[in-house]
Amino acid sequence: MAKYFDVHPENPQQRTIGSVADSIRSGALVAYPTDSCYALGCQLGNRDGLARIRSIRNLDDRHHFTLVCQDFAQLGQLVQIDNDVFRAIKASTPGSYTFILPATKEVPRQLLHPKKKTVGVRIPDHAVTQALLAELGEPLLSSTLLLPDEPEPLTQGWEIKERLDYLVDIVVDSGECGTEPTTVIDFSGGEAEIVRRGAGDTTRFE
């Protein structure tokens, strides 16, 4: 049965955030809010957590997982990024964007796209997510909480607790999230390619 934490959306309780972070370090799979919608997350090297996310979402090995980072210092360790791409991403973060880029050797192989060797990265603009990332001191392996055959992500913490009670270990609820996932921009070919139009404005990448 999942533990349920009610967290203030703007001033998250530090003790609660610390407890969630400790659980993630111990192998927990968490459902947590972001600036686009709820996501599933676990520690980067958590193979069991990765398998559970794949199972919950019914994902194949071509799915781009997202590494959710606190800041550019973390992001820069995970992906290869040149100056032009850096400037384009810097202008759009933090925000509701996921960027697909060639991964560095810091990223576990099982997270990479099997052919392209790429991974998704993002820096969210959400107080609870940022507090959790700061407490963890490392990125979160994440995927949008979109269940198979459902058109939109789950938006309410209590509903996630109800439906995924025995599939996740923790539900962090900070109020209703949106239903629109991040905008996905693929920079792996050097030029910006809009893969998915979502919560982030695509104008600067057109």
From TrEMBL:
Q: What residue stretch is flagged as signal peptide? A: none
Top-level taxonomic group: Bacteria
In this chain the YrdC-like domain maps to: 14-200
Q: What is this protein's record name? A: Threonylcarbamoyl-AMP synthase
Report the InterPro entries cross-referenced here. DHBP_synth_RibB-like_a/b_dom, Sua5-like_dom, SUA5_domain
